[in-house]
Every structure is written in C-alpha cells, then in structure tokens.
Amino acid sequence: MHELKITMLGPSGVGKTSLLTAMYEQFESNIGKTNLQLTPDLDSSALLQERLAELKTLPDSFETKGWMQNTEDYKSFFFELGKKGAKPSLKLHFQDYPGEYLNSKSPREEKERVENFVNQSAAVIIAIDTPALMEKNGYWHDLINKPQMITNIFQRAYRDIDSPRLVIFAPVRCEKYLQNEQSISELINQIEIGYAKLLDDLKTELLLAKVAVVVTPVQTVGSVLFSRIEMNGNNPLFIFRKTSHDAKYNPKDSEQPLRYLLRFLLKLHLEKKNWGFFNVIRDLFGVDNHLKNAVREFAKGCKNNNGFAVLQGDIWLNID
C-alpha cells in the first residue's frame, strides 16, 4: 500500500491529538454519500478512542495545561483510505512530535528527525493554541505556540524542495473567536501577525510557486468557550467553560484539514507531472476513477470564508 506522510506540528499540549481525533470522527460524519472510508490501524484507533472519550466528558469548567504538559515520545497515527468495502488504496501517516524535540537541550538526532519528516511530508498541519494567539494581543503566543521554532523547522526542511507542498494553519480551541465577522477577521489578522516570519519565508521566490498555505479553524469540541486566564506563579492557566451544563461534544469543521489535503493530492494527480514521492498519487488515481471521483466529491466541501482562507498557492487547490 502506498504511504503519504503528514506532519502534525506544534508544541506539546497545543491540541494536536485532539485535532486528529476530531478530524477522524468528523470525517465519518461528513463523507455523506461519497464512497470513501478512512480506517485507523489498531494502535491509532485505541489512542483516538481514549482522546474522544476525554473530549466527550469534559467538566463544566476546565483548564488546558497546554505547554505545561510534556509528551515523552513521538506518536505515529496511521489511517487507511479507500473505497467502502474494498482494500484500502492509500495509507496516510500522521506524525506527531513533542515540542521538546526542538529545545536546545534535546539530542541533535531528535531535531533532525523532525526536520526530515517535515521534508518528506506532503503536508504539514500547524496546530495553533488560539487563546494564546488572541488574548492580551498575543502576549502568550511566543511562549506557548513557539512560532520562531516552527519557522526554523521550515527554513531547514524546505530547502531545495522539488515538489509542491501544503501547509495548513489550524487554530484549535477557537470557538470564542468565530462568533462574528469582526472576531473572525481579527483571528486571520493575528495569524498573519503571529506567524509573519514563516509566511514571509513561504512567499519567497523559490517557495511561492510550490507551497500552498491555508487557514482552517477547527472547533475540536464546539460546545466550549475560552473564559479567562489565571496565573499559577509565572505560568498562565487557560480556563474554558461549556456553553451550558448539558452541552454535548459538538465539533465543527474538524474534517476541513483532511478535505484540503485530499483536494491538494487530487490536484497533483491532475497536473500529470513527475514529482518524486507524489508519483504514487498519479498512479493511484490514474487506475481508479471511482476513488478519484469520491475524493473529488469530498474535496468540494472545502470552505474558503468565515475564517477559512487560502493565503497562497490556490493554483495547487483548483480542481475545477
């Protein structure tokens, strides 16, 4: 089975595993009549089920410790994609790295592992802790989201890339900031400010023609809102609350990163060019029109307003 790599990027505790959980769960709810099936392997399924149970049983008010939580090791999540009832055609390998891998005290081989995987990935999904980006004019953004570290990874990993890539900025825990046009506009503006250096780098002459950049806000719970920041010594505690005592798990737009990913892969197939590891996509869709049509139908659901935006490289997302 052909395998494509996708990197989940962001410091520990930002919400990458919750994003993956909601992405998979909402894919199942949004595929509609398309003939697609996304199946996690046994280990991935067990991890995702644990996180899903946590998301569905949140207390009325809770604190996300975010950057204070440490992930001891990297995690691989494998999903098999194919037609319903048929042998899967493609394996999607999502790699999640703890932010500590890029700290100054971490071994060099850990830093190189992250860079190599980003270099080999069709797409990178950057999970953003949205309250850290938005509250107090982004006062906690550098500490929690570590944008300079993220930028440095791309500076090294995207040297001399020979094929198109997709970069997805995925604000999570963003429910509060999607309430009206003004807050939505401010969210996009703060992303452009908070990741200005990375966005500028991706717009340089050698990368502008190869890299598509999109913003896909993901409400991984949907029924919670950011409430306030409390201080624990010098550390901020981000407090969230449910919209009501009996509010249930209700994620929104969690499948959008996957829609954009499949749209991007379909576009690469339609280009019919020789691009290294993307040749598997050309061969795969070339011999299976039913799969190609199912992917096209699912990819048509990509949103591009109300907080969703293509910042560059729309040529790599145009499948009309």
TrEMBL record:
<dbReference type="InterPro" id="IPR027417">
    <property type="entry name" value="P-loop_NTPase"/>
</dbReference>
<dbReference type="Pfam" id="PF19993">
    <property type="entry name" value="DO-GTPase2"/>
</dbReference>
<dbReference type="InterPro" id="IPR045528">
    <property type="entry name" value="DO-GTPase2"/>
</dbReference>
<protein>
    <recommendedName>
        <fullName>Double-GTPase 2 domain-containing protein</fullName>
    </recommendedName>
</protein>
<feature type="domain" description="Double-GTPase 2">
    <location>
        <begin position="6"/>
        <end position="167"/>
    </location>
</feature>
